[in-house]
Amino acid sequence: MPRVYAPVEYAILAQIDADAKEKDISRAQWVSTAIESYLHLGGANPEEMHHELVQLRTEKEQTWREITHLKRTEEKAREEAAQVKARADKLQVDLEQANMGLAGAREELAGAKVEADKLREAMNLKTDEISFLRGHVSQLTQTVSQLALPPSQEEAKAKHWYQFWK
To answer: What is the pLDDT of residues 62-81, one digit of tens each?
Structure first.
């Protein structure tokens, strides 16, 4: 295999050595791979490719930031959803308790209505009884007044009735 020699600046050589060491290959293998890559590109301008590579890296970083932001947003949304679910569960329990209290209150109201109806009926019976007794007392008063002696007879009886027995 033929060899190719080219002058390289020390800074570029240091970068080549570092990349070769990172990939665990020799400097010659690294240069051979770089030449093959350049030839496969079809003579594309390395500066344009470098510019495109920088742009792609920038887009990649921006995408990574967006993904990270979206993951945080998703996590916050999940936390908020869990909190809302907990509140909804608590409200459901409160609603069930309120419904049970309402049912109890309705039962008490029905009992109170029955009791009120009984008391109204008793009051009506007592009112009827009082009306009856008033009417009866009125009749008795009229009867007693009709049976009473006139005032002259009463006085005579009061003063001298016992004299007939003497």
So the answer is: 999 999 999 999 999 999 99
Per-position DSSP letters for 109-163, written without gaps between them: HHHHHHHHHHHHHHHHHHHHHHHHHHHHHHHHHHHHHHHSPPHHHHHHHHHHGGG
Q: Which domain holds residue 35?
A: 7-43
CATH number of the domain to which 35 belongs: 1.10.1220
For residue 22, being part of any structural domain is answered with: yes
Q: What is the DSSP letter of 24?
A: T
Residue length of the chain? 166
d(CA 115, CA 121): 10
Tens of pLDDT, residue by residue over 135-157, are 999 988 888 877 765 656 666 56
